[in-house]
Every structure is written in structure tokens, then in C-alpha cells.
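Weekly puzzle thread! Below is a chain. First person to post its structure in C-alpha cell form gets bragging rights.
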Amino acid sequence: MGVSPPAPALGEFEQLVLFALLRLGNGAFGAAIHREIVSRAGRDISPAAVYVTLDRLEAKRMVCSYVGTPSQVRGGRRRKHYLLDTAGQRALLRAYRTFLAMVGGLQTELDALALSVSPPAQTVRTVYGRW
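Winning reply:
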């Protein structure tokens, strides 16, 4: 039995796109992924950045896509839907585990950092949940 190759490293924005796709579920479309990132991460990003990243992730075989049926609401145009592929799942899990390993045991320091930067309304625990 062979060992799977390690999942490739993801850039920060690639992680955001994959997390949004995971949250929305397979079959999500680019505009919904864009809205999810803007609302959850508070990032002011262009929709084009999401589509470029989805294309790059598809080239890396981390996501795949299919074109849906035409919609009256969209003037008969078809919508492209995205699926999180196995390589994308592995890479996202690796990024998440790496993040948890790096922040583990730093709660006090991160809370102090959160209080020292603007706005001081949230602590890191509020943002990331429990460790």
C-alpha cells in the first residue's frame, strides 16, 4: 500500500476560497463564494479575484466544475458550479491543521494582541472559537 503524496501548500486567498466552498457545499457558484468571503472575512475583494483563484485551483485539480442548466432568472445563461476535489480537501485540511498547530498555546498572547490593535471590540477567541 503506497503513501499519498503530501497536499500542496495553499496561499491565504486559496484557503479562503476553499473554506467558502466547504461552507457552502459542493455545487456552489462563484458569486456565492465571493459573497461568503466578503461577509465572513470582511475582505473587500473583486469577484474576478475569486474566479481567477477558482480557475487556478481547478488547474491544480483541487476543485472541479460543471455548468448547470440555463435559468430564466439569468436570461437563459448557465451558471458554473464548483466542487471541492480530494486534493483540495487534503490541502485545506493540511492548512487548517498547520494553523491550529501554530496557534496552539498562544491564547494569552493572541488575546493581548487583539486588545492592542484597533478595534479592540473582539478577542481572538471570539474570532476563531475555542482552541
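Puzzle host: Confirmed. Bonus trivia for everyone else. The first strand starts at residue 28 and ends at 29.
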